[in-house]
Amino acid sequence: MSEDNYIWKSAEGYLDGTLTEAEQAGLEERLAADPGFSAQFAEHLSLLRSLRGQGQNRAFRSMLRDIHRHQPAGEEQSAAADKQRTIPLRRHYWRTAAVAAGIALLTSLLTVWISQNNTVRKTSPYHTLVNIQKDIAKIKSAQYQQNITINKIKDTLGRMGPEAEVNSSGTAFALTNDGYLITNYHVVNGADSVYIRTRDGRYFKTFTVAYDASTDIAVMKVEKKHFRFGKGDLPYSFAPAKSPLGAKVFTLGFPQDEIVYNEGYVSARNGFRSNPDQYRLDLPANPGQSGAPVLDAQGNVIAIVTANETESSNITYAVSTKALHELLRTLPRQTNIHLSRQNKIGRLPREQQVEKLQDYTCLVQVYK
Amino acid sequence: MQQLFETEQEVLTALASGKREAAERIYSQHYPVIAKWIRANGGDEQEAADIFQEAVVVLFEKSRSGEFRLSCRIGTYLFAVGKHLWFKRLQAIRKQPGSLPETAGGEDGTAGTWEDDLQVHREREMHYEQLDEALVRLGEPCSSLLKAFYHQDRSMQEIAAEFGYTNPDNAKTQKYKCLTRLRRIFYGIQAQ
Question: Hey, which end of chain B has fewer CB within 10 Å, N or C?
Answer without folding.
Answer: N
